[in-house]
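Hey, resending since the last one bounced:
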Amino acid sequence: MKKYLLIILAFLLSGPVFSQVSDLRFYREDIQFKIRGNKVSVNGIYFFENISNARIIKVLSYPFQKDPDLYGEISSFEVRDLTGNENIYLIDQNEEEAKFRISLNAQETKHLRITYSQEFFGNEIECQLLTSAQWGKAFEQINFWLETPASMKVTYFSYEPDSMAVRNNNRIYYWHKKEFIPDKNLIFRF
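The structure tokens again:
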């Protein structure tokens, strides 16, 4: 019985999404950020692969910006498995992170859509990228979009966008990187 309790405890304490997990490869992310008023909406697709020859089950952690002077509560956090077209249920959510469980068969790939929105109270939004670097390997590719009202002037980017377009009264900034290891978080100031 103690052996089973230790196995269950080890499972529950398994590595967070943004720390390296030996059999789970996190190789790509496509994230859209939309700013409307004092709210940022995040719609991201995260790409994972089980590189082992056995089924794995992992508890992953998605970190949030947590400074209460700069950011409000998270609303509408949802994780969906696009490959299996099913919801993934949260194990826990607090002001610092959301935890959820995924399982992948041997050599299986999963694409997870994570969506949520969060209020911000200043003139800056910071998106966690450094935690992704803890996986220890470069992303094969990343794609980021920032959509703002055309009237909003972004005065600083921690990573300069690759392009910008104006469509339907919105400015859309775009980043595309290959073999990318973040060395700082993604920051927008306006």
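Confidence is low (pLDDT under 50) at residues 1-20.

Sorry for the duplicate.
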